[in-house]
Amino acid sequence: MILITGATGKTGQAVIDALAVRGGHRLRALVQPGRQRSAAAIKISAQAEIMVGDLLNADTLAAAFCGVHALYHICPNVHPQEVAIGQNVIGAARAARVTHFVYHSVLQPQVEAMPHHWSKMRVEEMLCAAQLPFTILQPSAYMQNFLPDWQTITGKGVHSVPYPPETRLSLIDLADLAAVAALVLTEPGHFGATYELCGTPGLTQTQLAESLSRQLNRPVRTETVSLNDWEKAARARGLNDYAVATLLAMFRYYALHGLSGSPNVLRWLLAREPTTLAAFVQRTAAALPAAEGQRTQ
After folding, report:
1. Backbone angles phi, psi at 189, to 5 degrees
2. Is position 152 within any domain?
3. Do residues 13 and 44 make contact, with C-beta atoms less than 8 angstroms apart?
4. Model confidence, pTM
5. Residue 191's domain spans which residues?
6. How deeply is 112 buried, as exposed, middle or buried, from its count of CB atoms within 10 A (0-12, 13-18, 19+)?
7. Structural domain includes residue 85
8. Looking at the domain assignment, is residue 82 inside a domain?
9. Please, which residues bridge with residue 134 across strands?
């Protein structure tokens, strides 16, 4: 039995899909209370057993770990109590004698200036001390982060970011990350490994816009949104104070240093070239309707 925490998020759903395709293992999805009737939970219930459990309540985790031999732990995104959650999940895994703990971390968690990265480093530290067989995955930002603004990109030809156009970021296709997660969970040889996962080298936002332009066959330009304007929009969407402050800190770090890595590890694990940004844009354009402005071009 393989347990996936944070199962209703986009990462959890992708990992469950990839594991289901590989087959050969029973899957259990740990869902936060109140999320068991969500569209995401209903979708994954066809592939995995749904178990409700509160990651902040250690007492509720024992049942979820019953019969589990491997775990993929995803903490809810930008969670203020990620370290406490990690401690609970590691404790439950030890009590259940889990034989493989795979932790979903982040590229360069050692950067203290980004609080959510730093929290993941603390969890990595606890995991290393827990005497559990583990693997740590450190993915870069997802190519899927384009999707919330897809209509603006295709309709208005604007790629909006809250950092300068020269900011370099590596990206990974979520499908490639999920494929690696499924691989390390089901094949031997990955105990003790920490894998930095990047699908691209560092690309500037100008280079990203140029790639979007080529694949969409329309001009796309990068537009820098002020941090004040980003914060107003984020609060209007309901982001809490911790998430807003943490993401603003991340954007400030990006503006100074970017966040880049090498695709070599991902290429080795996949035994193929990682998905390119061009291929991702082509796939997305084929799957999603263009905005009205783009369809009339």
Report:
1. 105, 10
2. no
3. yes
4. 0.94
5. 2-143+171-197
6. exposed
7. yes
8. yes
9. 101
Note whether residue 216 is domain-resident. Answer: no
Distance in Å from the first CA to the final CA of the chain: 51
CATH number reported for the structural domain that contains residue 26 in this entry: 3.40.50.720
Contacts 24+ apart (CB under 8 A), 267-276: 269/180, 269/183, 269/184, 269/195, 269/197, 270/176, 270/179, 270/180, 274/172, 274/173, 274/176, 274/198, 274/199, 274/200, 275/143, 275/173, 275/175, 275/176, 275/199, 276/199, 276/200
How many domains are contained in the chain? Answer: 1
pLDDT tens track, the chain, 297 positions: 999 999 999 999 999 999 999 989 999 999 988 777 788 888 998 999 999 999 999 888 999 999 999 999 999 999 999 999 999 999 999 999 999 999 999 999 999 999 999 999 999 999 999 999 999 999 999 999 999 999 999 999 999 999 999 999 999 999 999 999 999 999 999 999 999 999 999 999 999 999 999 999 999 999 999 999 999 999 999 999 999 999 999 999 999 999 999 999 999 999 999 999 999 999 999 988 765 444 433
Cβ atoms of residues 13 and 40 within 8 Å = yes
SS (H, E, C) 231-266: HHHHHHCCCCHHHHHHHHHHHHHHHHHCECCCCHHH
Pairing of strands 168-169, 203-204: antiparallel
